[in-house]
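Entry:
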Amino acid sequence: MTSDGWTLANFTGAIHRGGVGLWAWSPARRVARLDSLCCAFWGVSETVVDIDALFARVNADDRTGMVEKWAASERDPHPYSFDFRIGEEADARWISARGVGGDAGRVGDWIQAIFLDITDQKRAEEAERLLAAELAHRVSNMFSVARALTSIVARDAKSAPLFAEDLSRRFGVLHEATVLATRAQNGEDGTVPMAVLAERILAPYRTGANIEIDIDDAVVAPSGKLNDYAMIFHELATNSAKYGALSGGGTLRVQGQLAGDDVRVTWREGPAPPDVPKADGTGFGSRLLKQTIERSLGGRFERTIDGSGLRFEMAVPHSRIASP
């Protein structure tokens, strides 16, 4: 800043640090003029770009609405603000287009406006929505687990006092698993062997099913990701208690080992009893598994169900396992 005020370089640097890029577009020539930050937003090197080439980079789900609002800003002399994504999937960048339309925003052949990077804000909103949905889902799952455990214990209970004692013990083990995840996530106990976590989650079901856990000692859950793995095991166990081997009398084998650059965990169930309802695999639980494994852990998974039962296999890069 000089004694007379802001220089262009200082002004540009200040707004860029705030995530604001300057741009203009010419409706007649169908081209856009971008400053350096806008070029970074769009992933282009040229400062003058064909407008339709930019449209092609907009997320497919946002493109139609964005184009309509963009076109309307040429005529409507009022302030506007609309949001859209550039790119696809988890790497998409959220942008807010803001300006004044019509002649109020026009300088010669160009309509001037700004782009604001709101990616962090949108991802925080998405995380908040997921957390709220996850909380509702977990509460629902808690009731499902309670019903399943009650049914398992009731089949073998010899008396009401023994029934209450056994059920209380099983709920206590589930609570212990939750505490284990919470402590590790807070950094009190560091990493936790995946076998220990699986054992804690599945212990309440052992009377009602033949369960084998064979996870190598090298396979551990870091404190910062333990809740993700606990959620995955809990989701699989809950679904199994509803629809699969853990609904009574089935077989389950959980394996885990290092395989090249990945850690692989396999969950195999024998066929469910014939009178158990079947899962359709399209509910929130399935979406939660996809969100947790693919986005949070950077992994992948496959799930198949046939006459021999269910097979679930996930692979997570070893770096995501070994480092918090």
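The mean pLDDT is 80.
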